[in-house]
Predict the 3D structure of the following.
Amino acid sequence: MEVFLQLAPATVVGILYALRVHRLAGTPRAVPEWRRWCFLGGLVLIVVTLTSMGSLSDELFWAHMVEHLVIGDLGTLLLVLGLTGPVLAPVLRIRFFDRLRILAHPLIAFPLWAIDLYLWHVPFFHEAAVRHAGIHALQHFSFVAFGFNMWMALLGPLPKPAWFGNLARLVYIIAVRLTGAILGNVFVFGGHVFFSVYAAGERAHGISPGADQNAAGAIMMVEGSLLTLALFGWLFARTARESEERQGLLDLAAAQGVELTEQRAARAVAAGRGDELRRRLQSGA
């Protein structure tokens, strides 16, 4: 029953995504192949993680931590990279879901993710999730939902606030990293075992509660560090690419004798509309 509760949403989402991608195929709005592979990879990663960990994640805290990081960080990141505006268009035509777009605002998405992360590591809630299948499924669903929303604010295709440029994105990435690092440090250096629910499993596997908790915290910090380095690399490449594209638009405007301010070029590039502006400049508009 627990497996069904956790895998049913992934199955439904996968079918809907495949149908939408098929409908867009062969049109100017077709989903790029690399995005399709990202989405598929995210789904597979989540499903395989939930089905392969077995009882180990209920017996050892470090295994449970691996499970949560894979589905809530890596899997959701790949899902978001697989999305485009045209893919989401039918969903956003539904008024209820369109109104939910506000949740992907950076100033809302980040605190929601952080609250969810810390809430499920409060001993009462965490141990309830380990002991009860329904609560465990809810825990996993919330990690995926809020992780997905957190990445949507940074990488998703929805329009971003005007102030959310590359510097703000850098601050966002650092805030996410520090939030996870603080919790990881608590588990490593807290000097107290927070969860007794793993006691039987720890005895069976010959690991002390302290060592189990330290391993979980260390895994959390290492995963966060590696992911942050990857995001810094992405942001650096994005900044360089946008600078080059912005200058190219300014040079084209000068060659065409069309007035174009640096601010307008920067806004177009940041919004992903550089190609559209380039076509207008080439036509003399």
The mean pLDDT is 89. The two ends are 60 Å apart (CA to CA). Residues 2-242 form one domain. The chain has one domain: 2-242.
